[in-house]
TrEMBL record:
This is LacI family transcriptional regulator. Pfam families: LacI, Peripla_BP_3. Coiled coil: none annotated. It comes from Oleiagrimonas soli. Keywords: DNA-binding, Repressor, Transcription, Transcription regulation. It comes from the Bacteria. GO terms for molecular function: DNA-binding transcription factor activity; transcription cis-regulatory region binding. Residues 3-57 form the HTH lacI-type domain. PROSITE patterns: HTH_LACI_1, HTH_LACI_2.
Length: 346
């Protein structure tokens, strides 16, 4: 027969309530009693019944994360940060992807109802109507890089505009006058802000220069296609700024295949600073997003909201971006005058 909580209580000479308090991490048990109970748990090899504990505590000790995709280095780093914080708090993770589809995102959120204590949501479709239709009103929720923050949610974001603005300023400071931009998906909130940063910086530092904006999908394949398109232009740009590193890497491949040298013939920069960016040749100048930290802080805020729903927490928090200057943009580090707090030379 399986060991029950009553068997543990009997072996430790305490009440069932005392055993329950220790197993649930409560502090109102003296240290000697706590040690005696834990020793009995180990000796009897007692395994708590998760379903029964959930009925008592009304907690599943599981957190949900809805992401646009699970493929690629960005999401790998984001999940790593989320997982680090989850394990530190003894939480399990239920992770799902919307695969770029609003209906799938809604279905994933519906599936998680009743199975998780809180949600992390990163979705380009998370506008006011989507969140109102699909988020349970009382569910603690932290939104990551989404365009709208309802009153009952918290938000974590990256200063995408400032990062893009600073990168264009850096490229212009090196003497580049024609800077092309490979955009991300049109319906993506982060892509929209990075594009706006590019536009604003071009107007500020290179007024009157025609903008070159190419379509992209945040994938290496779309970056490769954009690079091939640039090669066909009558006047190629001096520099290419891709809205994420994977597109920059794809573009680099197209340029290499055409026999162009980076940065001698054309400078190149990306955004995110995924781990691969520092290992390609030449190493990629980029805007560093502290991806794992973004996931870790988002989950920390979610746990705080679950543990203390009435806490006066900061509703919206923005992480600063950072220029990381490497060989692909050309000359040595140039410290920008504003918009971003840090410049790293790697």
């Amino acid at each position: 027969m399986s060991v029950t909580i009553k068997d543990v209580a009997k072996a430790a000479h305490v009440s069932v309530a005392s055993v329950s308090r220790v197993l649930n991490g409560r502090e109102n048990v003296n240290e000697e009693t706590r040690k005696r109970i834990l020793a009995a748990v180990r000796r009897l090899r007692y395994i708590p019944n998760g379903a029964a504990r959930s009925l008592i505590t009304r907690r599943t000790h599981t957190l949900g994360a809805l992401l646009p995709d699970l493929h690629g280095e960005f999401f790998s780093e984001l999940i790593r940060g989320i997982d680090i914080a989850a394990r530190a708090h003894g939480q399990h993770l239920l992770v799902s992807s919307s695969h770029g589809d609003a209906d799938e995102a809604a279905a994933a959120l519906r599936t998680m109802r009743g199975k998780v204590d809180g949600l992390l949501v990163m979705s380009p479709y998370a506008d006011a109507d989507f969140l109102a239709d699909n988020l349970p009103p009382a569910m603690p929720t932290v939104l990551i890089n989404t365009p709208h923050t309802p009153d009952n949610c918290m938000a974590m974001s990256v200063d995408n505009h400032a990062g893009a603005y600073a990168m264009v300023e850096h490229l212009a400071s090196l003497g580049h006058r024609h800077i092309a931009f490979i955009n991300g998906p049109d319906d993506n909130f982060e892509a929209q802000n990075r594009l706006l940063g590019y536009r604003d910086a071009m107007a500020e530092f290179l007024p009157g220069t025609p903008l070159q904006i190419l379509e992209g999908e945040f994938t290496d394949v779309s970056g490769y296609r954009a690079g091939q398109h640039l090669l066909q232009l009558e006047q190629r740009p001096d520099a290419v700024f891709a809205a994420n590193d994977m597109m920059a890497i794809g573009c680099l491949s197209a340029l290499h295949e055409a026999g162009l040298r980076v940065p001698e013939d054309i400078a190149l920069a990306g955004f995110d600073d995924i781990p691969l960016a520092r290992y390609i040749t030449p190493k990629l100048t980029t805007v560093r997003v502290h991806i794992a930290e973004l996931g870790e802080q988002a989950l920390e805020r979610l746990v705080q909201a679950i543990e203390d729903p009435n806490a006066d927490a900061e509703r919206e928090k923005t992480l600063e971006s950072e220029l990381v200057l490497r060989a692909s943009s050309g000359t040595s580090a140039h410290k920008t005058r504003r918009k971003t707090a840090h410049v790293s030379k790697v």
